[in-house]
Every structure is written in structure tokens, then in C-alpha cells.
Amino acid sequence: MTLLGRLLNNRRAGETHAAWNLPNLQSTESLTVTSRHFGEGDSIPLEHCLKNVGGDNLSPHLAWTAPPDGTVELLLVVEDLDVPLAKPAVHCAALIDPAAGHLEPGVLDAQRPATGLRLLRSTIGRGYHGPGPIKGHGPHRYTFQLFALAAHVDSTPRTAAPARARPRTLLPAITAPVLARGRLTGVFER
């Protein structure tokens, strides 16, 4: 597996097609996103990684500054920017009640999601899927992106059945105005 990682080392999705750079998810206002488990650019602890790499697949604690008035829903998108594909892999997508203020560890579990949380499809499935990059591929950046939306995703005309839509179909189709956004990036390498 290490040889495969080295062979694919120069192939990385990059940020171009990340949710953060989609024209419909732009905003001039900012949210600050933090975690008790890692800081900006720091290594993501093993407990938050996939079980097949020795982790517990436990979603990390996330907190954010208060979203602007008029925020109806928060959209969380977790992406691996360094996956050897044409576009980043979505490891988690969720809609969050803006009154939440933070997410405790493990609440993005598909079997036991927290109250006020709707888990959407990701590239891998529903719920949180932690880091698990190919061994030897080098460091992977995982971005936890949070968007404060002025309308429910369900109420926008181009997003029929958001709970069933694939992320690469859903994300560019969101028409709800983004009032603010923020992100936290952690790194993991095998």
C-alpha cells in the first residue's frame, strides 16, 4: 500500500473544487471555527480517524462564533483536499440548527446523530467518516467548513430531496444566501 501512495503522491484533488470555492457558497462575513482536539493546521488525533487506520471514527468537537442574525440553518461540509481524485472527497455533510453553538465529539455518527442535526450524504456514506488516507501518500488536509444559510436547504428550488442528493450535486445547487462562513483545517498522514 505504501508503494501505491508514493505512486499517487503528485495526484491530489486540491482546493479548486472544494465547497469553500463554489460561487454559491461565498460570503464576505466570517465565522471562526475551532476544536478542542486540534488547531488550524495541526494533526488530527487518531481517535478521529477511520477504524481501519487504528482510530475510533469519532467526530471531533467543533465550535464556532455566533452566526449572523437571519441564519436559519448551518451547513457543515468536511472534505479531504488531498485525495487522489479529480475533486475533494466529502467525508461528512450535515445541516445544523444555528442555536446549537457547537458539536460535541461523536454527534455526527450516522447511527446516533444529535438533536437539531440532519446528516446528508457524503462521498462515503451518511455521517462522519474520519481521515484514512492511502499509506505513503503524504499529508492530507481535512477542512471542516461551516456555512451560515439564510434559508433552509429544503426551501431552495434546485435542491429537491437534499437528504438523498449526492454532495457534488447538492452543494452547487444550494441557492440559500450564505450570510457567513468559516473553516478549520486539520492534517493527517499515514
Give structural notes.
With 190 residues, this protein is mainly beta. The chain contains two helices and eight strands, in the order H-E-E-E-E-E-E-E-H-E. The strands form two sheets. A five-stranded antiparallel sheet has the order 6-4-3-7-8, with no helix packed on it. Strand 3 and strand 4 form a beta hairpin.
How does the SSE layout of this entry go?
Blueprint: H1 2-7, E1 33-34, E2 62-64, E3 73-80, E4 89-96, E5 102-103, E6 117-119, E7 140-149, H2 167-173, E8 178-188
Antiparallel strand pairs: 1-2, 2-5, 3-4, 3-7, 4-6, 7-8
Main attributes of the structure:
7% helix, single chain, mainly beta, 2 helices
Distance between the termini: 11 Å
The portion of residues forming beta strands comes to 15-25%
Biggest β-sheet: count, sense, barrel?
A: 5 strands, antiparallel
Helical segment count: 2
Write the element-wise H/E pattern from the N-terminal end onward: HEEEEEEEHE
Low-confidence stretches: none
